[in-house]
Amino acid sequence: MVKTLNLPLRVYEDLRGVSEELTLMAKKQISPSMAVDLLIEVYRAHLSNPCALDRFSQQLQTLNLMSPQEFDRYWDEPTKSATKHEKIEKTKNKEKLTDS
Asked: Which among 20, 42, 40 is positioned nearest to 30, based on CA atoms?
C-alpha cells in the first residue's frame, strides 16, 4: 500500500538529489522512494553496531533540535524570511546613504 508523505521543498530537493546520485552509482534508475528505503537500510546497518548506536543517541540528545512544527514552519517559508531580511537590509542601506 502506498502512502503520501508531505515534505518541505528543500528536503524533497535533497531527496531527489540523493536519488540521482544513487542512480549514477547503481547505473540503474533509483526513485526517491527507493532512495528513502536504501537510506533507512544504511541507517539500520550503521546503528546495528552498539557503539555507533550509543554515540548517535548521545549526539541526538545534545542537539538543539527544532520541534516538528518549528521545522515545518521554517522550511515552508524560507523565501518569505529572506525577503523580509533583504527589505530590512535595503532600508538600512538607504538610511546610511541619506545620513552621509
From this structure: 20
pLDDT, tens digit, for every residue of 4-55?
988 888 889 999 999 999 999 999 999 999 999 999 999 999 999 999 999 9
pTM for this predicted structure: 0.65
Distance CA 75, CA 68 (A): 11
**Biggest alpha carbon–alpha carbon distance for the chain:** 66
Provide the grid cell at 99: 545620513
> What are the DSSP calls for 3-62, one per residue?
------HHHHHHHHHHHHHHHHHHTS---HHHHHHHHHHHHHHHHTSHHHHHHHHHHHHH
- Domain ranges for the chain, please list them: 9-99
pLDDT tens per residue, range 65-89: 889 888 878 776 655 544 544 444 5
